[in-house]
Amino acid sequence: MSKNGNNSHGYRGVGLEVLDRHGVGVWSDVEIESSRGSFRGLILPRSETADDRHIVLKLISGYNVGIGAETITKITEHGRREAHYKIPEKEFPRDDAKPNIVLFGTGGTIASRLDYRTGAVIPAFSPGELYGSVPELADICNLETEKLFGVFSENMAREQYLTLAERIGQAIADGYDGVVIGHGTDTMHHTAAVLTFMIQNPPIPIVMVGSQRSSDRPSSDAAINLINAVKAAAEGDIAEVQVCMFGPTSDEYCLLHRGTRVRKMHSSYRSTFRTIGDVPLAMIDPKRITHLRQDYKRRRQDREVKIVPTFDDRVTILYYYPGMRPDLVDAIVEKGYRGVVIAGTGLGHVNKPLYKAMGRACEAGVHVYMTVQTLWGYVQMYVYETGRELMELGIVPAANMLPEAAYMKLCWALGQSDDRDEVKRLMLTPVGDEITLREPYNGYLVYQGEIPEVQEFIRSIRR
Amino acid sequence: MSLPFKPFDQMTAEDYAAIDLKVGLEVHQQLLTERKLFCRCPAGRYSNEYDAEILRHMRPTLSELGEYDGTALMEKKTRKNIYYRIHHATVCTYEFDDTPPFMINPEALDKALGIGLLLNLNIVGELHVARKQYLDGSIPTGFQRTGILGVDGWIPFGDRKIRIRQLSIEEDACREVSDVGHERVYLTDRLGMPLIETVTEPDMRTPQEAAAVGQLLRLLVRSTGQVRTGYGAGRQDVNVSVRGGTRVEIKGTPQIWRNPRLIYNEARRQCSLLHIRDQLRERGVTPESFEARSEDVTKLVADTEYAPIREALGEGAVVRCVLLKGFGAFLREPTQEHTTFAKEFSDRVRVIACLTKLPNMVHSDAPSESLAGPIWTALRRKLRASHGDALVLVWGSEADTASACNEVIIRAREATEGIPSDTRQALKDGTNGFERVLPGADRMYPDTDLPPLEITQSRLDGIEAELPELVWGRMQRYRESGLPEEAVWALCVSRRQAELFDRIMAESPLSPRFVAIMLVQRMKALRRAGLAVDSLSTDEICGVFRAFAEGRLAREGVLHLLTHLARGVDAENEAADGAERVERTLAELGIAPLDDAELKARLDQKLAELDAGSFATPAKMCRYVIGQMQRDCVGRVSGQRVARLVHDQLNVPLEKSPVETKA
Q1: What does the H/E/C string look like for B402-459?
Q2: A186 an active-site residue?
């Protein structure tokens, strides 16, 4: 008799066979005899990606261990203890004097707790659950939440962008004082850029937030990021699409970054988001918002906003590398792509053998824009002869637009027009500083370790 | 249980049996590896220097929050700022939680598994790394990565077995630099070093037994040669409980000899706390009837002469007074040596409310030491305290004193129930103080950053083949060969020493006692004299003993030759063949043993050079000649033989000579 029925909790092959043979299953409290000795504990579910030759046991000490299924000679069941876990919910207090904020969930976990028995992460999302885990939020606002999708950030795409833009437009019309969007960090800057293009001239802050360390860890940045994001949405004056994430790796403050100029720059640091080629909008901590620039769009009381929910995803980024072959460009055209954003070398270059293929692409009506893979700095295609030749072929320099921002913008523009000049007008008319007129002197700061003045800085300033 | 407790020195095994003392050990031992456990930073490099500092806070995750409401979390804002000092040579982005873990260090894992086999453990089929939460900031992630390697083992102890509950492999924590007020500072060099933790069952019945088992476990791990030695490389925690008590963990000292007194004091504390609870019940104070409250009394104490409060008031502090209904007189009840029940409160106030400047509270059970009588009277009136009640005063910032009052009340409520489950810190005087609340199994959860790792049978077989002889067997063998107990331990504590001894004994038919004394005592003396004896290869040391066994070296020459070899250790010589170097040095020194004829010839020559008349007495001449002869024949003949020969020759009775006692 199988106790495992249809749900084998990740067990299969030898492991499942051994469980079945001994008439036990997940949540059985067992004593296992094996060629390595005996073990007492609770059988836990097994990860789908792990091998099929081990049984996971939670010992009384709270530790998990794996027992080789083939070494098992006997299993005695002492009972069953099934885990059911639910986040303690507490009603989010309402205070009419406080601003009303809506939090949209896209699938990344802003707050979560772990089921200590299975290790499964249970997301906290309803206002009650969030209040249970981040009660400070109630000091700031009245919070409502809506889960829009359940996708990892790398799976965000056209459909999600359109829905998000429309829902935000609705929230503005509904009179909310601010919008917060919980988002996985990997593609947060893509979404931030496209929302900037789709939601033009919003009257309220639209703040994207995520976490680099999951909220089940005491060192998590999730709660602080969320508190600061909600504060920026509720009390902040910046009525733009912005990203709120850790500033330094120290627990000091978050930075508010403009949606088109922000980029994830480290695979794991909590201070991974940086404003590129410019300075951030503001520093924010639970006590104050410190504006770093004055040229932002102010919060307004009206509800006027222009939502432009257009997106054609037949666009690609071509990250140039030495020796790139022209057939790649031909293949892009052949497959029906309508737009290409090149991340070129230096000031915006690709090799000579690509020229003809690029010419064919432009000829075929593909919209080709040049950005730089250096990330910092402007495209400048007049400096060298090669740049001029490329422009003659029809490649348009995209100034200092970040490659990802240019990609999102071209998708957005091609959703509106196929006219070469109109697309070019859309592309080169900045909506939210994706192209800036000037690069501030302190817009490019990448410190190098071990240089005495840098050492002095990180030693004394705690960043 | 009989109170008052006997002094430490007078406690017998029967006394401990009467209170049903149970002691378990948690032995932490750093493994000797090149790198850390979950990243590639070098292990074992310590420095107080640092290049950078970062600031973090520890936020309780939801499981802890279960017990807190929003207001309580607001109080949690009195939490610590934790500063980590970082030296670029010893720390990378992993340690301060900005990079996910790398795969576990296989070198560390193999060494730990070897020790697991020696502890007779059931080794797991698969290692699952868990996160064990620590909110004190000693690990920047807020948890320690740790995994169980085996369970249910044992070690022999006298004629019984001490059961080993489990062995885990884990990363070491930060070193604390300071902890004052709301700021705690850590050094991160030790963070992430591979560590094993051996947990015994509570099988020890006396403090002395616990120390003996502690020594044995230390010996076992050190006998493998796979662990670090030196201060702090091995640390022992003790778990103590008495009948009716609770398991309390005392974070250990690196010195096992301190443990018995710690255990005694903890046993005594638990008995005292149970006694206090019983007396409270007699007065009708139970968890249900418990009553306490606090009020701001800053104005009432404004004119106090008591310096700590007066100074705090000068800095703008507020003073709050807690009324503990029915607690009168208990706060002066002794709990440990030189320690009263009041310290239980003071500790909590210090650790949790961050009022770290001592004294941080005063109470009405020791009124004369602090405030004047009329102030106490006024406080009693204000708090509506009756005779049997106790008052506790705390002072500091508004938030901290509120938190302190809360802690005092929490601790008092616990007193009506018995003994709180604490983790306690060992203090130098053998008593212990509160460190944190003992966390339960709930703080363990799987590390989602790392996959399970199979421990294959072939890996275990390979490790087993390389294991040293079991230390118990080795000890038994040494005892049977007549070695004194100190020598047995001294040899067994080091794998190199023991294996060297065994090789010498196998190669050369020498007295075990002689070899052991040479290796343990004489070599130690050379080491203390600054000689590089540890750089000598086993080939060299064995070569010396072989030369002696073959009669090519006098007994006295052994140390002489070792000294010369140790002096000559340098890069060039280290590369040379050991045995060859011994022969060469032996030849250079020219210290072949002298037989009787050669010795006689040398003495005759010496006497011929001397004018006997220039000595006042024959005995004086005798002493002079012996001195000269010993200098000429150093390392080639025993002092005794020289003396006997000279005495015979000069016809001076031997027993009168002081030379006999020399050498």
Answers
A1: HHHHHHHHHHHHHHHHCCCCEEEEECCCCCEEEEEECCCHHHEEECCCCCCEECCHHH
A2: yes
A187 is catalytic: no
Closest by CA position to A48, among listed A15, A85, A71: A15
In sequence order, what are the residues at sequence separation of 6 or more whose Cβ sits closer than 8 angstroms to the Cβ of residue A284?
A: A228, A231, A232, A236, A244, A253, A254, A255, A256, A290
Chain A hits for B62, CB-CB cut-off 8 Å, are 87-88, 113, 124, 132-133, 216
Q: Give B 158-177 residues with CB within 8 A of chain A.
A: 165-166, 168
pLDDT digits (tens, 9 = 90+) for B192-234: 999 999 999 999 999 999 999 999 999 999 999 999 988 889 9
CA atoms within 13 A on the CB side of B488: 16
Which among A64, A81, A113, A225 is the top mutation candidate for probing chain B, defined by the most B β-carbons within 10 Å of its own β-carbon? A64
Substitution target from A18, A250, A269 for chain B, most B beta carbons within 10 A = A250
Cα–Cα dist B137/B613, whole Å? 83
Which residue among the candidates A186, A285, A313, A330 is catalytic per the annotation?
A: A186
Q: Which residues contact B590 (CB under 8 A, 6 or more apart)?
A: none
Is the distance from CB of B440 to CB of B420 less than 8 angstroms? no
Query: If 0-12 CB within 10 Å is exposed, 13-18 middle and 19+ buried, where does residue B597 land?
Result: exposed
Q: What sections of B550-577 are H helices per DSSP?
A: 555-567, 571-575
pTM of the shown model: 0.86
Tell me the residue type at A457.
F
Per-residue pLDDT tens digits for A291-316: 999 999 999 999 999 999 999 999 99
A218–B60: do the CB atoms touch at under 8 Å?
A: yes
Asked if A279 and A443 touch (Cβ cutoff 8 Å), the reply is yes
Given the structure tokens 């939502």, which residue do they identify?
A307
Nearest to B141 among A37, A38, A217 (CB): A217
The ipTM value here is: 0.88
Shortest alpha-carbon distance between residue A48 and chain B (Å): 11
